[in-house]
Amino acid sequence: MQKNIFILFLLFIVQLHFAQTESPQVKELKAIIAKSGEYLSNLECDKSLGLAKTALEKALEIDDYEQTARAYNLIGLNLEQYSDYKKAIFFYQKGLKYVDQSSNNFMQYAIHTNLANCYCFKKINYKKGIYHYKKALYFVNLSNDEYQIMYANLNITSAYFAVGDYNSGIGYLKIAERFIISQDDVESKIMYNSLQGDYFSSKNDFIKSEQYYKTALKFCNENTTEFLKSNAAEVYDDIARMYAKKKDFSNAFEYMEKYSA
Predict the structure, then answer these.
(1) Mean pLDDT of 172-188
(2) Distance in angstroms (rounded) separating the CA atoms of residues 33 and 100
């Protein structure tokens, strides 16, 4: 089971503050990074990548470790859009070396998460992905940001469940549950219920599994954005697999048709 969860396209520009005491070089550098992030959010990757490379050169020239890490992270995000995942991983790893020399816990969280997403979403190396998700969780816990902590725990749960290690993952899902209740966030509710459906299917408790999957679909169907429609397609695939495991092939076929539509 693989979820399109909390892809951190814009974490590299979140908290990109412009202090009055900064030099003109640093202000220019941050402006370039912000513009590159804007292009990336609009999927204008050629423009974004060009600016990210310019930012990297300027950051290296002035030995600004934090902005160097942001630039490497930006390049990695762009390379993912070109499906060049091995190069993306290389640039994320370079970013980590520089962010380790800064005091920005949020950037640590962002790059570790992006690196883990790359490893797990593309099924490259779940063990490494889980390692980086846990590192991300460590740094985000220092921020006390409940929204990010919620997703960090959901990410680890999803990775463990993807490799069939439900015992290791379920504790993180229970932690996420506490935050989901207080957050007005549809995607997290879809993910939580889908993961619960997967968990109970693994235990052959098909009644609870079906209930959770259908709750996930209810949240999907209440929203019409393209991103949540893609989540619904994944839930159709998951519930079809659950019915097939249950040997309810009629329902399995029905949901597989919805997934393929």
Answers:
(1) 92
(2) 19
Could you tell me how far CA 149 lies from the centroid of its own chain? Answer: 12
- The total number of residues shown for the chain amounts to 261
CB neighbour list of residue 245: distance below 8 Å, 6 or more residues apart? 201, 204, 206
At residue 60, the 3 state secondary structure works out as: helix
Query: In the numeric block, which tokens belong to residue 53?
Result: 């490379």
Torsion of CA 122, 127, 129, 130, to 10 degrees: 130
113, 83 Cβ separation under 8 angstroms: no
Q: What angle do CA 44, 48, 50 make, to 5 degrees?
A: 125
Residue 197 in contact with residue 229, Cβ under 8 Å? no
Q: Residue 28: which pLDDT band, with cuts at 50, 70 and 90?
A: very high
The per-residue DSSP string of 113-132 comes to HHHHHHHHHTTS-HHHHHHH
Q: How far is CA 22 from CA 17, 28, 203, in A?
A: 10, 10, 56
CA angle 164, 166, 168 (to 5 degrees): 115
Contact 194, 211 (CB under 8 A): no
pTM of the model: 0.88
Helix pair angle (146-162, 126-141), 10° resolution: 160
